Amino acid sequence: MTDAAHALAYFNVVSSRVRLARNVRGMPFPSSPRRASAAALAALEEGAARAARGVFDAEILRMRDLDAVRKKALVERHLISPALARNTSSGAVILERSEGISVMLNEEDRIREQCIESGFALPEAYERISVYDDRLSEELPLAFDRDLGFLTACPTNLGTGMRASVMLCLPALRVAGELEGDLTRFVRERGLTLRGVYGEGSKAQGDMYQLSNTRTLGVTEDEIIRSVERATIELCLKDRGALERMRKEKGAALYDKAARSYGILTHAYKLTSAELMNMISDVKLGIMLEILPFNDIETLNKLLIWCSAANLTAVTGECPADERDVRRAAIVKSILNKEKV
To answer: Looking at residue 326, what is its pLDDT?
Structure first.
């Protein structure tokens, strides 16, 4: 991917993720009526943990040992899925302490390994997780068929078992009302899907969407990554085109929307998480329009995680919702005022 493409994607792409679905030969899928034995579950956990040695600095967290706030915080950071958080019988995650790699055990598949990188970095995410995947294949007999590839609980993951996705903020397309219709067809025609913040069945929040491949069989990992990269660049260009059209048609209203949201974020006494997400999206519009005394996209992206409900609670402690909104506003105000350029 060229430097120009990365510069274009900088404003829209929050993070990149590569996820690989794997199962163990002879071990029933987690959803199967036939249950895995305690010995098989222990061997799975031990093998997956051994594979991490020398690859990343890992700790293992079992869902039954975590309280609701910790699990929700991990979900908000996309390190585990809501489905894994609910599995208190056998669910676990092997987590890189710096939080780039997480390996979910006994979710929809026995193993779901993933790497998340900030910004537009799908090749880098794949390179890191593939090192772990190679080690995993040495430690455990993975379920693989010569014709079908990796065997997965859901047939749509057969083959590579790979989902490559980017977290996209598309504020201009949303404000312009162009996220439905033609855009939906654009994504489907390329064998991709555009989903909400937490994947299948979830809704967009703060103009944030996940773009990922739907085809995993009959394609290579490199082909999947290239197709998602190309579509990402096209969506970024579409968002920029919508912004330019709105600038010409209703520039004053657009500037006012971005400036008002920036003013609220830098002065508000209380902020809900929904308000924060929506206003950060507006501020990103203002940065793209070059009308604000602030241009740090990366700080805005981090605020979305730092100030999400469970992560804020994990850091500042339990408190009523109103008090949490006050704490959120104070953190946002402090960081944005300090980061002015």
So the answer is: 95
Backbone phi, then psi, for 66, in 5-degree steps? -100, 140
Alpha helices per DSSP H over the chain:
3-9, 38-52, 68-76, 82-86, 122-139, 171-175, 182-189, 221-265, 273-289, 297-306, 309-316, 321-338
Q: What angle do CA 100, 101, 106 make, to 5 degrees?
A: 145
**Residue 133 CA from chain centroid, whole number:** 20
pLDDT tens-digit profile of 155-212?
999 999 999 999 999 888 888 877 766 677 888 888 899 886 655 544 455 588 899 9
Residue 196 CA to residue 339 CA, distance in Å, equals 29
Question: Which 8-state DSSP code applies to residue 117?
Answer: E
d(CA 104, CA 50): 14
CA-to-CA distance for 69 and 33, rounded, in angstroms?
30
Determine the pLDDT at residue 201. 45
Provide the token pair at 206.
């703060």
Count CB neighbours of 60 within 10 A: 16
Single pTM value for the model: 0.91
Per the model's pLDDT, the better-predicted residue between 5 and 123 turns out to be 123
122 exposure class (CB count in 10 Å sphere: 0-12, 13-18, 19+): buried
Asked if residue 274 lies in contact with residue 299, where contact means CB atoms within 8 angstroms, the answer is no
Question: Each residue of 96-129: pLDDT tens digit?
Answer: 998 899 999 999 999 999 999 999 999 999 999 9
CB 241 within 8 A of CB 47: no
